Amino acid sequence: MKIRLSRERVRGDFVKKVEMISGQDLLQCYQCGKCSAGCPAAFEMDILPSHVIRLAQMGQEEELAQANSYWICFSCQTCTVRCPRGVDIAKIMEALRLVTLRQKNRNKVEATGLPPELLAELPQIAIVSSLRKLSG
Amino acid sequence: MKIPYYPGCTLKTKAKDFEDSAIAAARVLGIEMEELPRWNCCGTVYSLSSDDLIHQLAPIRNLIRAKEQESDRLVTLCSMCYNTLKRANEFFLADEEKRERIKRYLDDEIPYEGDVRVVQLLELLRDEVSMDAIKEAVKKPLTGLKVAPYYGCMLLRPASIGIDDVERPTVMEDVLRALGADVIDDPYKTECCGAYQTVSQKDVVATCAHSILTSAQGNGAEVIALSCPLCDFNLDNRQKEVQERFNGFHPMPVLYFTQLMAIAFGLDPSVCRFELSYNDPVPLLKSKGLIE
């Protein structure tokens, strides 16, 4: 994997957008990895939460666009409450989802695509929260 | 004590067992939970973005409904409603400029300044009822019933709104102990069940549920007690997927803590609506002599 770094990238629009939506300063993270160590969804992620933050710090938009990490994230906030630097990682994951979902036709879950048997089985909170997190 | 109560969508349907048992059990302790005459969906998940004011309106409207009842408090049962309502109010109070913008969207409502406190039933039991009063109300102690409390995420995180210690909560243990149960300490009690991924990532949720359930079983639990209808679905109904995926898994019942309160208080088990459980808890409760 080749990573290109430049001032334009590190302080570019993508980084600004993620910081604006999340309200977090990405450079506060010093890469201790505590978020990854305690993440209950990490077993299914292709890039660990701390690595997601590192890529975001470096403005690696293309690399992050390929990652499944923030789509698998449960928004459980375990990372957030454990971060020794006070970084709200769950908010950064949300910002990464929203960067995609705020574009047209980029939903990960479609209300119309859910089969009737599944809708009948699921509690309402599951349906509403899934659509709130994974569609725009 | 009368207190306005916000049910949320799932307590009126799939989690009717939670609502019915909670209202009946709270009444025994002198708490009258009065459902708001008008309420709307809270949105189920708090928006974690700083620029998304529109998603704060639905929860704030519910707090205004409590204000209309001339109350400065609102009680919830569902952990997700609790989290969403409480965090929305925190967001509303934290930033003056955003608060003023939200208020402009709500100009059809009575004035609101963030002065309704959201509480969850467990907090009321600890802070206003007391464990001694719960103990006194017990008619059928849950002696010999090995219960693992499960908090999940939304009652505890983030710490600013959590009802108890973020890593080592004890309030549910205290309630269950007051009911006479044999409380099992389980390290997975605050581990996420996979939450809303149950809609599109069943297998991921089954893996999480398997870890949580087998940890509780390994520590000797016969039943799990919880407070969230989404956790309940993932830990109870998703045991079907857990069994398909993991050889040798033995199913176990999952109950709302309020169902155990109702049983211990000697209420008619029909308030517990056990027919809504995926894994039938009745044989276990019968074997302990708790129901007939």
Give a short summary of the structure.
With 136 residues, chain A is mainly alpha-helical.
Q: Could you explain the architecture of this structure?
A:
The complex is a heterodimer of chains A (136) and B (292). With 136 residues, chain A is an all-alpha fold. Chain A has two domains: 7-103, Fumarate Reductase Iron-sulfur Protein, Chain B, domain 2, CATH 1.10.1060; 108-136, no CATH class. Chain A contains ten helices and no strands. Chain A has helices at 7-10, 13-22, 34-38, 49-57, 61-66, 69-72, 78-82, 89-101, 116-121, 124-134. Chain A is globular and about 50 Å long. The mean pLDDT of chain A is 96. By secondary structure, chain B is an alpha/beta fold. Chain B has two domains: 2-121, Glutathione S-transferase Yfyf (Class Pi), Chain A, domain 2 (Up-down Bundle), CATH 1.20.1050; 140-287, Rossmann fold, CATH 3.40.50.11810. Chain B is 43% helix and 10% strand. Chain B contains twelve helices and eight strands. Chain B has helices at 16-28, 54-68, 79-94, 96-105, 121-129, 131-137, 171-178, 202-218, 229-237, 239-245, 257-264, 282-287, and strands spanning 2-6, 32-35, 73-76, 117-120, 146-149, 182-183, 223-226, 254-256. In chain B, helix 1 (16-28) packs across helix 11. Chain B is globular and about 55 Å long. The mean pLDDT of chain B is 98. The interface between A and B is large, with 40 and 44 residues.
